[in-house]
Write a structure and sequence with these properties.
Number of helices: 12
Helix content: 25-40%
Strand order of the largest sheet: 5-6-12-7-9-10-11-8
Order of helices and strands: EHEHEEHHHHHEEHEHEHEEEEHEEH
Radius of gyration: 27 Å
Number of strands: 14
Shape: elongated
CATH class of the largest domain: Alpha Beta
CATH architecture of the largest domain: Alpha-Beta Complex
Distance between the termini: 19 Å
Length: 406
């Protein structure tokens, strides 16, 4: 069961945002409503859709399905984004008139994200690096994840690794992320050219102290290229900590982050893959036996003095073939959604004139007289609530489908 909270109050400040905790300006009623609403995280496609439409969510990555507003405009926007039906456009008879309908966008984008998750992320396996080539695996991984969000760009992780490995002439010496991004990617606003040695993606350095921005990037679904350096003593503490606490959160005290900066450090490249309320989650390349099945958690960026690069794409990075591919697949999703909803209407028409005999008042009642919910079906005449064993299954179907359409 999902509970959505909408708090209406003329004194409330209206903002297009979600909350993960009770705020100072919440009154008693607001607090109660907030506490009973459902919590979801940034992996949920609905939240991603709200983000794409200008709504803000907490940097913790978690949120209650709760909004407070003092005006109808924001309220309508919230409701539309959640559950807006298909509206007829009498001025345009094109079968894709409703392609930009917000409900269809939600369904479409949710479906597209599901494709990405199933075809790319869920099939991704943790690497078990050999030699000193963590840079190869981490850099290739971020390129893979960034490219997998582009429909029509079908790059395999093994092919990315092979391309970079061959270009680097099988050099197993350590390399800096700064060198790799400059060689294989494009800077912000740099013209995209046809260069077989480069990937059509952009990069931007991120300040490690700007954890707010780092969290927002992850919330938008973009893993981040990361690197850090530790002394030999710190590396021992690093390994020992995650050997004893595979799912533990590394802090400054665990690794002595304030150790003499003049001591030589050994660098390592990883991928910031996710966020949790109290920590950052990184993908390592030491195999599944390390940490939490190949992943490890750090309290914040300052624990390891991590350096970051955001790898992303904009429209200029897309080829015409990729743009056409996205347009066509999105139209196909819209077509299937429209067909589904139209078939639902046909089923309702088929059922609405059927009759149900109430065992309590003995009246014959047409299905279309029932306006209740499928979970609490009651007679519209005597108001007797029926036991589920005495309700025809097609009456439940009618009520459920009718509620969807409404």
């Amino acid at each position: 069961m999902i509970i959505i909270g909408i708090y209406l109050n003329q004194k409330s400040k209206s903002e297009k945002k979600f909350y993960d905790s009770i705020q100072n300006d919440f009154d008693k009623g607001c607090k109660i409503l907030f506490q009973i609403t459902t919590t979801i995280n940034y992996h949920n496609p609905i939240i991603k859709f709200f983000i794409n439409n200008g709504w803000k969510i907490p940097e913790s990555g978690e949120s209650k399905l709760f909004v407070k507003t003092n005006n109808s405009k924001d309220l309508n926007d919230f409701i539309d984004l959640l559950n807006k039906g298909i509206q007829e456009d009498n001025e345009n008879t094109n079968e894709y008139t409703n392609a930009n309908n917000k409900l269809l966008d939600m369904i479409g984008n949710s479906f597209l994200l599901k494709i990405v998750d199933e075809n790319y992320i869920k099939q991704f396996d943790v690497f078990n690096q050999k030699d000193k080539i963590c840079w190869l695996y981490s850099f290739s991984t971020v390129i893979y994840f960034a490219s997998s969000r582009i429909f029509g760009r079908k790059l395999k992780i093994d092919d990315i690794i092979k391309k970079i490995w061959e270009n680097e002439k099988f050099d197993n010496k350590g390399k800096k992320n700064s060198e790799l991004v400059e060689k294989y990617l494009y800077k912000e606003n740099e013209p995209i050219i046809d260069d077989e040695n480069k990937f059509r993606l952009r990069y931007k350095k991120i300040d490690k102290n700007n954890e707010s921005k780092i969290r927002r990037i992850i919330i938008k679904g973009r893993p981040i290229l990361a690197s850090f350096g530790l002394t030999i003593n710190q590396w021992k503490k690093f390994y020992d900590f995650f050997k004893e606490n595979p799912k533990g959160i590394l802090t400054k005290n665990d690794i002595n982050s304030n150790e003499n900066n003049e001591v030589e450090k050994i660098g390592h490249a990883v991928v910031l893959i996710a966020i949790e309320k109290d920590c950052l989650v990184f993908l390592n390349s030491y195999g599944k036996k390390f940490g939490d099945k190949g992943y490890f958690r750090v309290e914040n960026s300052n624990v390891l003095h991590i350096r970051y690069y955001d790898i992303y794409w904009d429209e200029s990075c897309l080829t015409k073939k990729e743009k056409d591919y996205y347009y066509n697949i999105h139209l196909e999703i819209v077509r299937k959604t429209c067909n589904y909803l139209m078939s639902t209407k046909d089923k309702i028409e088929e059922l609405k004139n059927k009759n149900f005999y109430c065992l309590n008042c003995s009246n014959k009642i047409k299905y279309d007289k029932f306006t209740c919910e499928a979970l609490n079906i009651q007679c519209p005449i005597c108001l007797k609530e029926f036991d589920e064993d005495n309700i025809p299954s097609d009456l439940c179907v009618y009520i459920y489908l009718n509620n969807i359409i409404e």
